[in-house]
Design a protein that fits this description.
The chain is of the alpha+beta class. It is built from 14 helices and six strands. It has two domains: 155 residues, no CATH class; 142 residues, Four Helix Bundle (Hemerythrin (Met), subunit A) (Up-down Bundle).
Length: 312
């Protein structure tokens, strides 16, 4: 049983009866579920995940008004639920809040992740809100939300990046891929700077992964779950094997030559997808050329005129 299943079962067996008994007149104001940071919210947790920040618990999201009226009482009721469930212990909940589970003010939940209580509503917020934070904000499950305030932000975020923002980010990441992988890696190998060459290669891989998520218009999770999350994507998820190979091969003459071929193959596959999605007018397989071509298709002049690397 993973964390999401554990949380849902704990709520059904203990949380729901508690709410129906002690807060029957407030049920329409309380959103319940599990979301936010943590591998269990992504559905990626396993046995190793249970050594930290893992518990049988759920979130109770309420408004600021509700928090003033009965937040402390709700927190106390939550704290009195069984301290262990299905062999998993619960973490101590502070009445002052600040935990990942228990009573959380809706605006506080989103402000912590997004810098504001609403979905991004400006170019700067969309550009600079980290993708893992956007992913955490829509993670997990909501078991009930009669009021709809908590879910409204999630539903807006689930639409993905606005198209101009998506293209700006793709162009920026593609430019870094071109600089680090198709240009700097080979030059550093020729200089005998194998350590720096490896750093260049890691940059290429990291930004290629970001491009793949953007081509799916899916927010990229925290880096340690990036490959795991790729397996669920519809577009270019099969590049995981090639990207992993780049970071596992050494830098001998033979291996470096193999890496250069893999880099070019990845670049070609990705630029072919650019063409398939009609976000570029370039016809070559040069990542750098496509990065600028994608920029030229951005409708918003402020975004279009930004530095090519802006927004990553």
């Amino acid at each position: 049983m993973n964390g999401l299943e554990l949380s849902r079962e704990f709520y059904n067996q203990y949380g729901k009866p508690m709410l129906e008994k002690e807060f029957a007149d407030k049920l329409g104001e309380i959103a319940v579920g599990l979301a936010g940071e943590g591998s269990e919210c992504l559905g990626y947790d396993d046995e190793l995940s249970r050594d930290h920040d893992f518990e049988a618990g759920f979130c109770l999201w309420i408004t600021e008004k509700a928090e003033r009226e009965y937040g402390f009482r709700l927190e106390r009721a939550y704290a009195k639920l069984p301290k262990e469930f299905m062999g998993v212990k619960r973490q101590t909940v502070s009445p002052a809040g600040g935990n990942r589970r228990g009573v959380i003010v809706i605006d506080d939940f989103y402000t912590k992740l997004l810098g504001a209580p609403t979905a991004p509503d400006s170019i700067k917020r969309w550009l600079y809100t980290p993708a893992p934070s956007l992913r955490a904000a829509i993670s997990g499950e909501v078991y009930r939300d009669d009021l709809g305030k908590f879910s409204a932000v999630r539903e807006e975020l689930k639409k993905g990046y606005p198209e101009d923002i998506r293209r700006k980010k793709i162009s920026a990441h593609a430019a870094v891929m071109a600089q680090s992988g198709t240009y700097n890696y080979e030059r550093l190998i020729k200089r005998g700077e194998t350590g720096a060459a490896s750093l260049a290669l890691f940059e290429f891989v990291k930004h290629a992964v970001s491009v793949i998520y953007l081509l799916n218009n899916v927010y990229e999770p925290f880096y340690k779950w990036a490959y795991r999350g790729m397996r669920d994507l519809q577009v270019l998820s099969d590049l995981e094997f090639a990207l992993t190979g780049l970071t596992e091969l050494g830098n001998s003459r033979k291996e470096a030559a193999e890496k250069r071929e893999i880099i070019q193959d990845i670049a070609t596959i990705i630029t072919d997808e650019f063409k398939a999605q009609k976000i570029t007018t370039a016809t070559c397989n040069n990542l750098d050329t496509h990065a600028f071509s994608i920029t030229d298709t951005i409708e918003n002049p402020e975004l279009r005129n930004m530095n090519i690397f802006e927004g990553i």
